[in-house]
């Protein structure tokens, strides 16, 4: 029999629909979604009533630091996780010592391992923050740029040149930031809250925008990452974004101080964030405070969840499993209704894709055939089990099969 398609997925359950569907794929694109697709595929996959979704998106991961937890010791974690987060600045100072040992080769090896984990968990888009400053120099950036090119079309990586130790309080870091972007980093990073005065914080933000404007880059900053209600760098970033007309091109990660701000302030800030088209990225599992994710979504702000860390000075676990991140956020933010679960799932799929400007994302006829076939039959089950997909498909090609890896007999599940 002549095969009509490259791939057909049978008996797929789709979010928000009752019936089961077949999905036909040709030349890397979804070409048909019907209750019954006539004509065979070169590859046939039976989803058996399991959910088929878009791949996961990790919009925030410190990728040069993965698997360094045991190298650094526990003091940074102890300080970062103090209940009011009053010592997060000193945690960053301690954690930065590891960078004196930064070498491109071992960063490459560690990041490679994290990418293989990403493939197995269906996380096919990552925004990777890579330190570049007077200690880290360009070692991590070089490693991640090589990996970005190697994994293109499998896991798409956006490399963020990130001055983790500040720009004003780390003289010389600005030069590295310019060089990293010149080398090809995709996004300009920043961390204005770490500077010692609001004047320095503005200078920090201005420098990042100068580079972004020069190279036409998106911007990702860590804002207000401590329990200090006097911090305003999320607001400052939004104001600058509006002034510079960088609308829809800027994200604020962490923003934990929003947990200790009064409600009327949050109301005004939400308005400003929407005007700036700014997304917030939260990671409630890596610190005792987190921004009010449900509130911000209810005010129309785009919010996504990030993995943030994999076994580094700030968090000892993590495996690029974004549905595990959603599972943890479900507990930490007390989001356990079915609607909440849908919101959390959105935050690791389309909301994250929107935050980091991924073009052509989404499961639809004519869209890219980037698909996950899950054993779970609902978003509820998926978050509950937070297990690896049965199949990970990229551009119409199976790039990971848990069925094969674990010799799963589909008749028995
Ligand atoms: Zn972070």
Can you put this structure into words, describing what you see?
Helix 4 (104-120) packs parallel to helix 5 (139-151), helix 7 runs parallel beside helix 8 (233-243) and helix 8 (233-243) packs parallel to helix 9. The model has no long low-confidence stretch (mean pLDDT 95). The protein has helices at residues 69-72, 75-80, 88-95, 104-120, 139-151, 173-183, 198-215, 233-243, 263-276, 293-298, 322-332, 338-347, 350-355, 379-385, 402-405, and strands at residues 5-13, 20-26, 29-34, 41-46, 52-53, 56-62, 123-131, 156-162, 187-190, 218-223, 250-254, 279-282, 303-305, 371-373, 391-394, 397-401. Helix content is 35%, strand content 21%. With 413 residues, it is an alpha/beta fold. The chain contains 15 helices and 16 strands. Strand 12, helix 10 and strand 13 form a beta-alpha-beta unit. The strands form 3 sheets. The protein has an 8-stranded parallel β-sheet with strand order 6-7-8-9-10-11-12-13. Strands 3-2-1-4 form a 4-stranded mixed β-sheet, with no helix packed on it. Zinc ion binds at residues 60, 62, 222, 253-254, 308.
């Amino acid at each position: 029999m002549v095969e009509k398609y490259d791939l057909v997925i049978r008996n797929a359950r789709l979010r928000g629909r009752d019936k089961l569907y077949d999905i036909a794929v040709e030349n890397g694109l979804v070409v048909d979604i019907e209750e019954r697709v006539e004509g065979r595929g070169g590859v046939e996959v039976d989803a058996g009533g399991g959910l088929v979704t878009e791949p996961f998106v990790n919009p925030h991961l410190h990728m040069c630091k993965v698997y360094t937890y045991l190298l650094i010791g526990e003091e940074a974690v102890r300080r970062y996780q103090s209940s009011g987060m009053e010592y997060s600045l000193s945690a960053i100072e301690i954690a930065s010592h590891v960078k004196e040992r930064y070498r491109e080769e071992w960063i490459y090896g560690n990041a490679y391992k994290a990418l293989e984990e990403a493939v197995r968990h269906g996380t096919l888009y990552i925004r990777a923050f890579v330190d570049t400053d007077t200690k880290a120099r360009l070692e991590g950036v070089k490693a991640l740029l090589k990996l970005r090119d190697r994994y293109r079309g499998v896991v798409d990586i956006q490399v963020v040149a990130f001055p983790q130790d500040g720009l004003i309080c780390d003289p010389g870091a600005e030069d590295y930031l310019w060089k990293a972007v010149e080398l090809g980093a995709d996004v300009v990073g920043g961390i204005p809250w770490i500077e010692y005065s609001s004047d320095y914080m503005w200078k920090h933000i201005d420098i990042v925008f100068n580079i972004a404007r020069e190279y036409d880059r998106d911007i990702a900053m860590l804002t207000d990452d401590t329990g200090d209600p006097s911090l305003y760098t999320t607001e400052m970033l939004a104001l600058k974004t509006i002034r510079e007309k960088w609308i829809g091109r800027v994200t604020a990660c962490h923003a934990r101080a929003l947990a200790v701000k009064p409600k009327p302030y949050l109301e005004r800030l939400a308005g400003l964030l929407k005007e700036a088209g700014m997304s917030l990225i939260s990671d409630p599992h890596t610190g005792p405070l987190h921004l009010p994710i449900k509130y911000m979504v209810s005010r129309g702000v785009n919010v996504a969840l990030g993995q943030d860390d994999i076994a580094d000075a700030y968090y000892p676990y993590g495996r690029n499993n974004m549905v595990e991140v959603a599972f943890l956020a479900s507990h930490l933010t007390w989001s356990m209704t079915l609607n909440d679960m849908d919101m959390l799932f959105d935050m690791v799929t389309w909301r994250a894709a929107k935050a980091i400007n991924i073009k052509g994302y989404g499961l639809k006829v004519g869209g890219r055939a980037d698909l996950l076939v899950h054993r779970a039959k609902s978003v509820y089950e998926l978050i509950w089990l937070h297990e690896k997909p049965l199949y990970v498909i990229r551009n119409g090609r199976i790039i990971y099969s848990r069925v094969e890896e674990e010799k799963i007999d589909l008749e028995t599940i």
